[in-house]
Write a structure and sequence with these properties.
Elements lengths: L15 H28 L3 E6 L10 H7 L4 H21 L4 E8 L5 H4 L14 H7 L8 H12 L10 E4 L8
Parallel strand pairs: 1-2, 2-3
């Protein structure tokens, strides 16, 4: 469950159409995909679901941070918080069927979407929130898709058989959670 995007405009100026579109992709898409595979997981005797969230699900934004660094849309923050809640709920429902459900909250990860460029930008691309993350992170520099993929691989493996209902940050140790 990895589809996601934000929109332009900060609350209260974000359009209702943008708000609904972002909720549909980020939160409703996670629900519909999970619902589609759920019977197959039950039939298989269990499995693992990993939902992609964001640091936006657990952070707040001060007016000074928004003024200095900008912000993704309120719909993105709301959708990802919903993904966290859905993850915990699904874990509770799935346990009796051997289905584990966890989430991942990426931070500053250099993807083509984050850099607004092509895959070649991953070696040195920049993004709109880079200075904010550089200020808040314990570990310097950005993360890369492999950092997230390694956690997802662990969460779907038998090595994590006793982990469910967790949402794990891959964020370089962002110290500011609110």
């Amino acid at each position: 469950n990895n589809a996601g995007h934000g929109a332009s405009g900060n609350f209260p100026d974000e359009s209702a159409e943008d708000f609904q579109r972002v909720i549909n992709v980020n939160l409703n898409g996670t629900f519909y995909m999970s619902r589609a595979v759920w019977p197959h997981l039950i039939e298989a005797g269990g499995g693992a679901v990993v939902n992609m969230s964001s640091l936006a699900a657990q952070r707040g934004a001060s007016p000074k941070m928004v003024d200095k660094f900008g912000s993704t849309s309120s719909s993105y923050w709301a959708a990802k918080a919903g993904v966290d809640a859905l993850t915990r709920y699904m874990a509770g429902v799935g346990g009796r069927s051997g289905i584990r459900v966890n989430g991942v909250r990426p931070g500053q990860i250099m993807t083509p979407g984050a850099t607004r460029g092509t895959i070649t930008d991953l070696d040195g691309g920049h993004h709109a929130f880079e200075k904010m993350f550089d200020l808040m992170q314990i570990t310097p520099g950005p993360g890369y898709p492999e950092d997230v993929a390694n956690l997802v691989l662990f969460l779907v493996s038998e090595e994590s058989r006793f982990i469910t209902g967790e949402i794990i940050n891959v964020d370089g140790g962002v110290a500011a959670k609110l």
